[in-house]
Amino acid sequence: MADPELSIIIAASHAAHTLRECLRALMPQLRARAIEVCVVTSSDAEAHITREQLPSANVIAVERETLIPVMWGRGVTQARGRIVALTIATCIPDAHWVEEILRAHAAYHTAIGGAIENARGSSLVDWAVYFVRYTPYMLPFAAGAMEVPGDNGTYKRAALDEQMQWIEQHGFWENEINARLREEKRSLWGDPRIIVYHQKSFSLLGFSKQRFAHGRIFGRMRAARTPERDSRSGTVPFAGTANGVTRRQRTLYIVSAPAIPFLYLARIVKRLARKRRNLPQFVSALPLIVWFLLCWAAGEWLGLLRD
Question: pTM of the predicted model, to two decimals?
């Protein structure tokens, strides 16, 4: 059987409440197209919803509490499509999502990210999660060079094949994959017509834990110092950039870690001021935003210590 045109990898983690809607949004877009859908989940309920809504989907089972980047990695290693699209079950694709992905990848760009909008009727926690994670991808923005988000990211499989050994070992951490692609002079692009809508994704406690865990892993990645490639495996160290950092840089990161929440908050404010949208929601959610940034900073600081 010929490889599909597109493989869609959906990481479903505690997302039974939105997975059905995510799949329903996709179903009309799959008709008369060679498209593979892979749902990665540890939940029997989510597996059941997938088989009920979309029997043709490939359900990939993982252990409970598997991190989303590791879930994506499992999906990517099994994907057969010429293009690989990543998202999560709490992001609902726009009605023209698939069409816009295929249109965008007719160009030469290796990786293309899209817009992430917040859904109507979101709670204060939902807004805080959205501002912390997705303000770089909030509309409006012009098509152009951009960091590709994991939750609405698309990649040409040929480029991912070159990174597959690392992905199999560590998962699909988009910061690392994007850094490797940039090192190879590949084009990373943003297209505002590729849109998903963020729904309720986390509780207050759940997102606090997630921020801490991801911050800790990011810190460990950033603290990896050895830049040389392994001559036998061709891999590079588990680092926040493909070249790693020096001991002096790592020390500076550790010392400056208390400033991390304020740096991230300043970036959020700058983006919102430029886009001039959702400002009342930002003000209301500000205490929660600061808390989530502190959770990330605490995790990143521990990771920098290479625990």
Answer: 0.86
